[in-house]
Q: What sequence folds into this?
């Protein structure tokens, strides 16, 4: 967006981003499969190709892996703009995460939450095993513990709300503490989406999104977006995209932008339903624990209220044990038993059955609340809970 354009609210930007102004063209960007650009652009064409509000493409665009493709640029501009930085699209959320972590100098020290996306844990363990970096794991909901681990760190990684325990980290406080010891700060904002939380405004240097989840919203694509606050960091991400080549496909870029059009509607509906279901689950005698940042008894509820504009649509709850949880999941008719999250369809998964997640309570269920009617979801859940609890007695 140019400096003279009126600033649009995020709900509107989601719908207008990437639209062309040419009356002969469709309203929305079509699928643009491409690898290379024609050489010999005029200065005018180059100016038109620049990402609005992002650093100018200084050289003539030649090849998509290095210069970006039109479909990626639309979703990069959208997510980058909503986060208040400069976005770079990757082939998955993990590729976006790796693009930030693998820029660290050899032997770097990374502070990482004990509860975080499992792919990150694996990436860090693999690198640590071959001496690339040192990892310090902290309970990120305790800022004193994080601060005690920061001296000598190069990168503080945060994920808030975290997967799957929905812990909230104090991004503003911890970003300041990390900067005070010279560490950069990256936040995985996948669960909150750019609509509910903007880590760059709270002091972070990088934000990543798995666009596979809420941004895409339909469980039909893989994509990641890394957003840098600083243009020099953005240039490094573009360089990473060029040299490592984990770039998205044209169809994925189209689907991600198309999905993002309805992000605010989907999220509003799913979030309201999540709040209601979390309340009802908390009152259910067979449910032993509900973790949802919107519940007043969530340990970081006040912090969530302060740094987020909503509590999201992920709810984690526990039933007595693994058998009860497995029977419950098998009895569901509307809610799908599957991994992943952030789509219009509600998904549920017993996390401790996944290799590497055995430390979680055996009866813990991660519930990605979708856009179905709240009463259909409650009917499904409450009757599955009844099946699971009566079949045991
Ligand atoms: C899914 C997810 C990722 C990884 O994204 P992919 O697109 O699957 O590579 C990272 N962080 C969080 C919080 C996620 O949910």
A:
């Amino acid at each position: 967006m140019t400096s003279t354009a009126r600033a649009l609210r995020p709900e509107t930007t989601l719908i207008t981003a990437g639209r062309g102004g040419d009356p002969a063209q469709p309203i929305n960007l079509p699928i643009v499969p491409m690898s290379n650009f024609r050489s010999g652009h005029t200065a005018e064409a180059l100016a038109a190709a620049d990402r609005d509000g992002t650093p100018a493409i200084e050289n003539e665009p030649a090849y998509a892996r290095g210069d970006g493709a039109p479909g990626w640029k639309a979703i990069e501009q959208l997510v980058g703009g909503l986060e208040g930085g400069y976005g770079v699209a990757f082939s998955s959320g993990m590729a976006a995460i790796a693009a930030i972590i693998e820029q660290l100098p050899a032997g770097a020290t990374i502070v990482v939450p004990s509860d975080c996306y499992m792919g990150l844990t694996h990436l860090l363990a693999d690198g640590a095993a071959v001496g690339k970096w040192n990892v310090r794991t902290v309970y990120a909901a305790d800022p004193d513990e994080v601060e005690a681990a920061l001296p000598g760190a190069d990168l503080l990684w945060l994920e808030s709300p975290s997967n799957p325990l929905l812990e909230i980290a104090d991004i503003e406080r911890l970003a300041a503490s990390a900067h005070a010891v010279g560490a950069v700060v990256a936040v995985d904002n996948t669960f909150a989406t750019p609509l509910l939380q903007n880590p760059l405004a709270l002091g972070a240097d990088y934000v990543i999104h798995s666009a596979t989840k809420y941004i895409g919203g339909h469980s039909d694509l893989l994509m990641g977006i890394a957003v840098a606050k600083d243009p020099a960091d953005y240039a490094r991400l573009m360089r990473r995209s060029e040299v490592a080549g984990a770039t998205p496909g044209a169809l994925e870029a189209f689907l991600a932008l198309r999905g993002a059009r309805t992000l605010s509607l989907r999220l509003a509906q799913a979030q309201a339903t999540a709040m209601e279901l979390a309340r009802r689950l908390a009152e259910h005698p067979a449910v032993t624990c509900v973790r949802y940042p919107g519940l007043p008894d969530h340990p970081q509820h006040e912090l969530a209220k302060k740094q987020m504009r909503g509590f999201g649509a992920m709810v984690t709850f526990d039933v007595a044990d693994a058998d009860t949880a497995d029977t419950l999941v098998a009895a569901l008719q509307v809610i799908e038993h599957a991994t992943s999250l952030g789509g219009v369809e509600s998904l549920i998964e017993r996390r401790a059955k996944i290799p590497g997640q055995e430390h979680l309570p055996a009866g813990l269920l991660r519930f990605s609340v979708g856009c179905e009617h709240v009463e259909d979801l409650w009917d499904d859940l409450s009757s599955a809970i009844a099946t699971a609890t009566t079949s045991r007695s």
Q: What stands out?
A: Residues 263-283 form the longest helix (21 residues). The pocket of pyridoxal-5'-phosphate is lined by residues 92-94, 117, 119, 159, 163, 188, 190-191, 210, 212-213, 222, 224 (CB under 6 Å). The chain is about 40% helix and 15% strand.
